[in-house]
Design a protein that fits this description.
The chain has 7 helices and 6 strands. By secondary structure, it is of the alpha/beta class. The chain has one domain: Rossmann fold (3-Layer(aba) Sandwich), CATH 3.40.50.360. It starts with a strand and ends in a 5-residue tail after the last helix. The structure holds flavin mononucleotide (FMN).
Length: 200
């Protein structure tokens, strides 16, 4: 089985919904399964420590998930045009895997949800790619053969899926955004399948 790690952080649930759609796209490809994982919140004041098991949603990611996956879809809300601190904090803990080359040659894609349509979703997607490039991953975008990229009046970019959640975080995922999440899941799964067994 080719396994894709769908790793996300979400406060209000929009990025989690996108992760679930991407996982559905992954699992629509024969021989592929999705492993949904999240990261805990962080705090500047560590008065309490989060439980190892989240109250709801996907389990917390471990470094074994990076080792065992054949590909990655990484999602975060847009925070000041960049990924959210809990997700960055997780990547800052992966230095041993960087040294070992755990992720070298594996395909990766990125997705985000933002409050406004032009509030930095593309810069978030591009900056999320940087640690993945340092890890030696192969970045996978979405080609314009996905026609929703041309017709969308909400989110959706060639750099990765995006969702325009609105300033009240109450806009549902549009049909174009949904199509692009599913397509991204399918594409990362198909590319991981093709790369498996290839010598890089
Ligand atoms: C600290 C902070 C910074 C944010 N920065 C941006 C931003 O730069 N651009 C934007 O459009 N939305 C911004 N937002 C809004 C979130 O990106 C938006 O609510 C997103 O849909 C949340 O995703 P979630 O439902 O997965 O938590 C910010 C929100 C917070 C809390």
């Amino acid at each position: 089985m080719t396994e894709i790690l769908v790793l996300y952080y979400s406060t209000h649930g929009a990025t989690r919904q996108m992760a679930q759609l991407i996982a559905r796209g992954v699992e629509s490809v024969a021989g592929c399964s999705a492993r949904l994982r999240t990261v805990p919140r962080i705090s500047t004041v560590c008065e309490t420590v989060e439980s190892d098991i989240p109250v709801a949603g996907a389990p917390y990611v471990t470094l074994d998930d990076l080792l065992e996956c054949n590909g990655l879809a990484l999602g975060s809300p847009t925070r000041f045009g960049n990924m959210a601190a809990p997700m960055k904090y997780f990547w800052d803990s992966t230095i041993a895997d960087w040294l070992k080359g755990t992720l070298i040659g594996k395909p990766a894609s990125v997705f985000t949800s933002s409050g406004t349509l032009h509030g930095g979703n593309e810069s978030t997607l591009i900056t999320m790619m940087l640690p993945l490039l340092h890890h030696g991953m192969i970045i996978v975008g979405t080609p314009y053969s996905e026609t929703a990229l041309m017709s969308t009046t909400t989110g959706g970019t060639p750099y990765g899926a995006s969702h325009w959640a609105g300033t009240e975080s109450n806009q549902p995922i549009s049909e174009a955004e949904r199509q692009l999440c599913l397509a991204q899941g399918r594409r990362i799964a198909e590319i991981a399948l093709k790369l498996q067994g290839a010598t890089l």
